[in-house]
């Protein structure tokens, strides 16, 4: 009998398992994949996520890789607006990082194992054990093809957007919106580029330096174009970058594409009920949104932290645990609803006139530009961004 079984060992599951083990609990972490293994995702981590990695003692491991610190954003909107700056720091961290997932995820898993978590890779959870409507354990396929069960006071589903745990507990979908975008990306060697964003009607391009001297170039299209785009992904990708960011496209012609094109139209937007009796969800299992805002990794970290914090020392007292889990789910909805809505509005790939007016007003005012980037990173709230100084400019 474990205190906690965590299903899924990436950005949400590995930190949740690590923090629960550090809180003194006996934790089993089950993962169907074997690490290191890549996953469909770009990998920009905003400053609040970096601050959490530091707090957990894992940032030095990340810095020891060759992922470059990113402390400057260049954001082009249409043909005439260019904002350059950096998010305000969070706990002294002004740099973001974008480590490849086959670099980041093993660091997180090693952090969990060092905290005393028992990790079993190659184990796929196929069912949950229930007693009186309460989840009390899991059934899973083992790495040698057999079947096994383990019991725990709490089962945490950190098993991604298509979470089996969410399906098996019948977690309600609380909020759901139609997919807005689809995206394709690849990596270039020898591309002279920093962190760059290009925003034009129905198009968006992101450029992110990462490990191995490689640079990710990512193109977004409206979801309505997905069928056409996927039939001819490479020409569509090139056409998007050429028209959205012509000067970047010229630089790309001097560089070499180093990997195949990756892409997805599964940009689901939802919030699920995040806890019940004997179970909780973290990361994409609880809350998924369009990848355009690059917030999923950081939000998974925040949720892992929130869950552990809410449980505190209450795991062994059933009524206190139930209360803690309800509080976790409530706090998660409150905390992520605004970001969810603002992500949807970016994913509409249409900058409203009021926002264009705001961009023109802050352009050239470094303090306001940095504060705007701080709203994207989550370092400050949007309502705090619209301060007296900005409102005066907008009059
Ligand atoms: C195209 C794209 C670009 C993105 N770019 C960014 C970005 O730049 N920055 C950012 O912050 N976020 C980005 N995201 C989002 C980010 O990838 C996710 O939010 C993040 O991976 C969520 O982590 P997770 O641990 O919740 O889920 P996942 O990373 O999906 O991990 C779930 C794990 O659970 C395991 N699992 C699943 N089912 C079972 C089972 N039954 N038994 C055992 N194990 C199981 C899986 O093998 C997997 O390892 C992007 C996403 C996409 C699709």
From TrEMBL:
Highest taxon above the source species: Bacteria
Every FAD-binding domain range: 2-317
UniProt-listed InterPro entries: FAD-bd, FAD/NAD-bd_sf, Geranylgeranyl_reductase
Gene3D superfamilies xref list: FAD/NAD(P)-binding domain
One Pfam family hit: FAD_binding_3
An example Gene Ontology molecular-function term: FAD binding
Protein name, as recorded: NAD(P)/FAD-dependent oxidoreductase
Organism annotation: Streptomyces tuirus
């Amino acid at each position: 009998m474990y205190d906690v079984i965590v299903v899924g060992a990436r950005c949400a599951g590995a930190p949740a398992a690590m923090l629960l083990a550090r809180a003194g609990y006996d934790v089993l972490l089950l993962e169907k994949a074997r690490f290191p293994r890549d996953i469909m995702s770009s990998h920009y981590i905003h400053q609040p996520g970096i601050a959490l990695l530091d707090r957990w003692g894992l940032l030095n491991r990340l810095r020891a890789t060759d992922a470059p610190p990113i402390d400057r954003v260049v954001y082009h909107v249409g043909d005439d607006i260019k904002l350059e700056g950096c998010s305000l720091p969070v706990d002294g961290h002004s740099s973001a990082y974008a480590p490849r997932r086959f670099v980041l995820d093993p660091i997180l898993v090693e952090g969990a194992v060092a905290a005393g978590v028992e990790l079993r890779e190659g184990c796929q959870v196929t069912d949950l054990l229930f007693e009186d409507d309460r989840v009390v354990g899991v059934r899973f396929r083992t790495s040698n093809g057999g079947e096994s069960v383990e019991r725990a006071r709490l089962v945490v589903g950190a098993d991604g957007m298509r979470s089996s745990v969410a399906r098996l507990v019948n977690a309600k979908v609380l909020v759901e919106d139609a997919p807005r975008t689809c995206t394709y990306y690849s990596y270039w060697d020898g591309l002279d580029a920093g962190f760059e964003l290009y925003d034009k009607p129905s198009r968006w391009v992101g450029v992110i330096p990462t490990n191995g001297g490689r640079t990710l170039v990512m193109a977004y299209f409206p979801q309505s174009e997905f069928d056409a785009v996927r039939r001819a992904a490479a020409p569509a990708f090139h056409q998007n970058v050429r028209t959205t960011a012509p000067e970047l496209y010229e630089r790309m012609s001097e560089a070499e594409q180093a990997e195949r094109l990756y892409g997805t139209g599964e940009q689901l937007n939802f919030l699920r009920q995040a806890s019940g009796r004997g179970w909780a969800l973290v990361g994409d299992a609880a809350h998924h949104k369009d990848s355009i805002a690059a917030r999923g990794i950081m939000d998974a970290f925040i949720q892992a932290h929130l869950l552990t914090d809410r449980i505190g020392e209450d795991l062994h007292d059933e009524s206190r645990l139930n209360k803690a889990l309800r509080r976790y789910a409530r706090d998660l909805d409150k905390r992520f609803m605004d970001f969810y809505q603002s992500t949807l509005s970016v994913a509409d790939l249409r900058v409203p006139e009021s926002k264009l007016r705001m961009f023109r007003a802050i352009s050239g005012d470094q303090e306001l530009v940095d504060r705007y980037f701080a709203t994207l990173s989550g370092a400050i709230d949007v309502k705090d961004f619209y301060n007296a100084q900005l409102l005066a400019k907008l009059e």
